[in-house]
Amino acid sequence: MCARRFLIFVFILILLFVAGAFAIYQFGQQVLIKQATPQGHFEAPSNGKPDYSKAENWIASEDLPNDPSHWRPANDQPVEPIAIDARVFYVHPTTYLRRDHWNAPLLPDSDTEARTRLFVQSEASAFSQDAAVWAPRYRQAAFGAFLLRNADAQNALDLAFSDVSAAFDEFLKRNPTGPIILAAHSQGSLHISRLLRERAPQLKDRLVAAYVVGWPLSVTADLPAIGLSACTSPDQTGCVLSWQSFGQPANPDLIITAWEGTKGPTGIKRERKDMLCVNPLTGTKDGAAPPNANPGTLVPNGSMTGAHLEPGSVGAHCDKGLLLLDGPFLRLGHSPCRATIITFTTTPCSGLRSGMTRHGGSRLGVSDHQQRRRVRRDRFARQACRARRRDEDRRTGGLRFGLELCRAIRNDPSDQVHGRPRSTSKIR
Q: Any residues with CB less than 8 A from the CB of 70 and at least 6 apart, and which?
């Protein structure tokens, strides 16, 4: 009798477990979206637009004290500065995780500020030995705005873009000539893709490359309107690199659901089969590279106060528009979470890529010898931690903020990745 009762009890527990797993599978995504949606309706701020002529409205810029883009990994090797005066305009991803407003304030709370600086530190620093980095503060849309298709979400994203656009005007005013690199992640990439469309004349003959990372781009619905092609070789310039990195098995449902079926600026509907993937390790569209081709994965310590480069650990290959990570999961310091943090390094097709195109009268180029030297010390401009979670977590998005180990955020959108690559070729 006791044995029968015990078996019945075990059977009931199994049923409850299966029912719970099914509920997460079916409704986890809806629950996540609901929990990320800001309260109330969008309200336009009453305190006016940011003044980007003031240093306080930039996180990184020339001569700014305590600039996080100047950070370096513990084992990074210094290199001689390049001889050309290049500039990087970098837009950080979503770091405002609160639900009290549809947009973050320009000068945010301490937690948001810490996350923002961490992203600039781990991503934009990939370029700062070769070029001056400019990274504006902006009234970023709350995380939930990406997951919804309604007026509140669109108004929040439009407000955020208006700040990015105004900051870019100031950037161009202070840097009227010379090569330009655009780089962004997640929400920042959404704004950069729009900036590429609207500012094409100002970028003509100056753009080295655009890194539109962590937000999908369609080769049919987006790229024709941008007027740039996807990078197909490491030495190509004036092209776009875009990828969304996932650990395997990948579950991009959260972001694909929000993106697929929407109309691009060409009027064509976006489809999964047209999603762009440029492998940053190879600098080529739909490329693949083994772990030993990666010059360095950025691995933070458990407290996220420092990081080092781990060469030859993580590879990646494009598959159906996604960048899938290959290689072992790396332990972050002494943290209980295991995560893969990628350093997508691209040969010259990352950072200041080499090429034979002239920008501002200067030749962008790099010899094979110089390229090999540069690639050895290059690392990516995107850092993130994708915690190895249970299948249920993956079904609810599987996105982990690269900043707060084990806190939800978008996967490359982002970020499941939240791994990032980088590499910059020397400009001479």
A: 125, 128
